[in-house]
Amino acid sequence: MTTGAWNGELSVATEWVHPERGLVTCVAAEAVAADLRDKGWRVRLGPLDLASRIVRGREAAVNVGVSYLDPVGEAHGIAVGASMYDHLALNAANEAVEQWTATLCTRRVLLVTQSRCCLMETLCGRYETNADEHTAVEANALLHDGADTVQRFCPKALRVAHDLTDLLDLKNEVLFVCRSGLPEDFGLLPPLPRHIRRVTSVEEASTVRARDPESVFFVLDPGMHLEAAALIVHALRKRFPRIRGTHPRHWCYAESDWARCLLTLETDCDVVLAAGGRPQGITAAGSEKWIDVRSAQDVRPQWLIGSATVGLVADGPSEAATAQQIIEILGGLGPLHVVKRQVLSESFIGETSNPLLRKGD
User: In what side-by-side order are the strands of the sheet with 197-199?
Assistant: First the structure.
């Protein structure tokens, strides 16, 4: 229990007792302490005893605090203590509490944790499972990795591999519309022919040559943003009017849905916190609203002042753990409601007499 203070030192409460509200928990204490350390202060973190004035040589402390009651009547708040004889520390304690007090408000969080495309290189694009559980699965859908596990690829990725291989075996001229920067070994896609011709931009699609323009095919990388892919395909159709390629029912919408979901945060939120760092390859991530938060302790009050709606993005399991810690800190800065934001594109399955309208894979 912290009951006094040394000169040049600040005490940040993890809890303290209010004379009327009783026990006050300080969920944001770690962030408050980290903010003060960044400003050059030596900080002790722990419960504050507001009743005691002096302990074993430490000078009497002055504790500055603010508290509020949440909807269920529990008290939360922030308190910082300093020696009553250390005027610089007292000023710092007052300024810290004043600044964090400005963040207190009823707030909502729009949380984005939806699944991205399983082929993105920052994620696991294969499903690992025990080989004995898949004895009835088609052999061409499994790749062994060691004696006891198999790797089952995304069905859309397998279709890409099969289409490319089949078309090349028939001596067709095939263009692989894919992500720029896709590794030579195709990253998390199944093994593909190394000599396949890639098209990664509208410029390339507008200038690519073909031996026989009447027999050109394209195969679409399922890891692409479909908005970018559609522009490339449009350019290819203008250059090769008889081109044939991957049917839209086999396109993967996961990356486009993820990107569009992030874009909604741009318009709906006052600030967007990217747990663990902002996702790679997302154009929205360049916005001034976005802030990288490597750990929950990195949350700073200036981000939250006037921010009643906070976007929070977690791009993987470790980032999800950081996001949960950030939510806990935000929950100590006013009544909080968390909403999971998701954008999902699904194949239309309805009553139709048209046999061409089939369920997507």
Answer: 197-199, 173-177, 216-220, 244-245
